[in-house]
Fold this protein.
Amino acid sequence: RHGSRAGVAVQASATGVSGKEAGKVEFTLRRARPHELDLLAILSTEAFTPRGEWFDVVQRVKFLLVRWDLQAQFYQRFYHWADVVKDFKPPVTEARYALLAAAKSNGNAIGVTELCVAPNPASKQFSEEMSLRGSAPYLSNLAVDAKFRRNGIGQGLVKWCEELSGEWGHNALFLHVDVSNEAAIKFYMNMGFVEAPRDMSWYDRIGRQDLQVEQQLLLVKLLEQPSAPPTGAEEEEEDEAQTAGEQEADVAGPL
């Protein structure tokens, strides 16, 4: 249940970001399409767990394992997000999920990120001080093809997530980043994110205890006054528009 209006707006600004400057790549931001889930999982895995050289057997096996796991996660979240949120503690009543892609003019995806509404990952004290709700938009798996970085693609995807978060009626956007990833921390802080205290029970509440041991920073960006959430009728119209767009893309064939 995600509208297409934000995508149209960001497409224009994204093209403006990259433009036709020397050395820049033109790209468009759009919703991910069902037939490219596997390719997007590979793109994301390459960013975080490169497959390595042909002789690096351990690294290549690790790449395959991570890739297969992420492909399964993409399919589960893309098609069954309403079921996923029922298992959160407490369950989230907003079944909000978006898989967003950045694509070249030929349609090939070169960037990806996920946005969903999940339990608020910040500490209770921080959330109360900032007047944050029990659930909040959460950005994850932001990745850009190494050949096309430094073209404003990651920035464009994050800005679209901010816009969608406001449209969904929220005033904050959260994400986690590894403490060792200095480049990513600098990237997000330059976009206005700041560190927030973590609620360590959050990993258990979303069923990802495997991530609890990782050394991560929780970053948050407080957004401007959110828009009013879409009404039921508006959401139905937006769903129909999105479905129509996906069907049209499928008729045009794979990327």
User: Anything to note?
Assistant: The first strand starts at residue 28 and ends at 31. Residues 169 and 228 are 5 Å apart (CA to CA).
